[in-house]
Design a protein that fits this description.
Chains A, B: Keywords: DNA-binding, Transcription, Transcription regulation. Chains A, B: InterPro entries: HTH_HxlR, WH-like_DNA-bd_sf, WH_DNA-bd_sf. Chains A, B: It comes from Nonomuraea corallina. The structure is a homodimer. By secondary structure, chain A is mainly α. The first copy, chain A, has three domains: about 35 residues, no CATH class; about 70 residues, Winged helix-like DNA-binding domain superfamily/Winged helix DNA-binding domain (Arc Repressor Mutant, subunit A, Orthogonal Bundle), CATH 1.10.10; about 45 residues, no CATH class. Chain A is built from five helices and three strands, in the order ααβααββα. In chain A, strands 1-3-2 form a three-stranded antiparallel sheet. The N terminus and C terminus of chain A are likely disordered. Chains A and B meet through α1, α2, α3 and α5 of A and α1, α2, α3 and α5 of B. The structure holds a DNA duplex.
DNA sequence: CGGTATCCCCTAAGATACTG
DNA sequence: CAGTATCTTAGGGGATACCG
């Protein structure tokens, strides 16, 4: 085993629900966090979405995702398998063949995830615009602080270390 | 600046959509990844869900989340603000007061996220069961490797490595 | 109060190499 | 082909101290 099964989840002790602000945020977060972190990690989404179309072999997945390393694909698949989202089917043929497919539960997750993906696709332009606006606003505020950067006069008084 | 605005997103170059497997996985992933990574990071979800109920001040958020550090709350809020999901309102009063509230876009994101949270809550038992089953199966396979298979007794040779 | 700047640790992800 | 084992590194995230 390379890494532990659990990592952080330290603040999960349901500190006090008296506060009217807290609802599922703290409580459900204990379980939601780890599951969300798992399915929303760098690769799981990709794998799930690919497998939703049809079952795939290890190498097919690797080539389809292409940025992924063997290591991460392997780990991701094992995680998904452990969570019951993906089924691993081994054919004991001479060149080994392993197929991966979504379980029914995995398929339901895909639907939910897809909604999130759609949201992202629908709003990515708005987000990009918001980012641009924000960056510009910040840059403008920097101008005020430094004085007019007529020639981008950056007085390099390195604040370095004391 | 402590950290760059972009980090990875290296494999985004839309390698080749000829493959029938790829659809939004690679293309949309370029945008989806960064946005998903943002909203699924350790704290953003909490903040969004809290703000969905009503606008809150910095300290209110800090106390509501309670496990969060100033640093991370500040960073999280700035990220969300930059993405246009959260609005920051500064009151120039003598003790400074800053309110945060969801933008309309942030509210729509919350709805989508909520669906995912609901999925998680609905399936957490199934996932826990799947994990237990998986772990048990793996343990059984370990037996085969280390001791004698199922027929004979369980040679309790601790399989653990030092 | 509402932040930012610094330091530091720890782990998750990448690269590489080896095996059944 | 389908993985594991090992090494290394970037950066996420906490603690602390200080500024407007």
């Amino acid at each position: 085993m390379e890494d532990g099964t659990f990592q952080s989840l330290g603040y999960c002790a349901n500190t006090g629900v008296d506060d009217d602000v807290i609802q599922w945020d703290q409580r459900a977060d204990c379980e939601v966090r780890q599951i969300l972190d798992r399915i929303a990690d760098k690769w799981s989404l990709l794998v799930i979405s690919l497998l939703d179309k049809r079952s795939l072999r290890f190498t097919e997945l690797r080539r389809a995702i292409d940025g992924i390393s063997q290591r991460m694909l392997s780990r991701t698949l094992r995680h998904l398998e452990r969570d019951g989202l993906v089924k691993r089917i081994v054919y004991p043929t001479v060149p080994p063949r392993v197929d991966y497919e979504l379980t029914p539960m995995g398929a339901t997750l895909h639907s939910t995830i897809h909604a999130l993906v759609l949201w992202t696709e629908e709003h990515q332009n708005a987000i990009a615009a918001a980012r641009a606006a924000y960056d510009e606003r910040i840059a403008a505020e920097q101008e005020e602080v430094f004085g007019r950067p007529a020639t981008a006069g950056y007085s390099g008084a390195s604040p370095g270390r004391p």
